[in-house]
User: What shape does this take?
Amino acid sequence: MITSSDHFRLTREACSGGARIIQYRDKDSDHETLLENALAIRAVTRKNGCLFIVNDNIEVAIDSEADGVHLGQDDSSIKQAREIAPPGFIVGISTHSMAQALDAERSGADYVGFGPVFSTPVKDSYKPVGIEKLKNVAASVSIPVVAIGGITPENAPPLAASGASCIAMIRGFYKDTASTVKYINSLFALKPQ
Assistant: This one.
């Protein structure tokens, strides 16, 4: 699950529904606020045995003792993140083509986000890649593939058969967060802890 507003409510409710990974996404706050929020989210995820990933900001991820960072194509490189990250730190990256996914794997990414699978206002400058390209990427890399972009509870079922390890949603988790997490987990055969 990705938070992009009301971070604490979404994190608490997602964890109560059995979320395995929470990504803190905040494109607008200053460094101090990012770190303060990340520390608060980390406390909730740690208490619930949930992995915590910080979007874009390797420094905030490290300083908040997150489990990892999710990079965009224009953020720090995987190599740069590895140079400053502690051992065992998860580094994932958004990819939008087969070439980027293969390059991410060669560069040492722990997972790739691939998409946008569907049209989304969050990535409105990218053309949707569709389910077939997602399947091709999932079959071509040996690291986990996370389907990203425009995913809702309604269009998620076909993604469970795509070869993707899981999905990332933002808007789809705003309402009925805990029950939506349970539903998505059921699609991917994940049981609450």
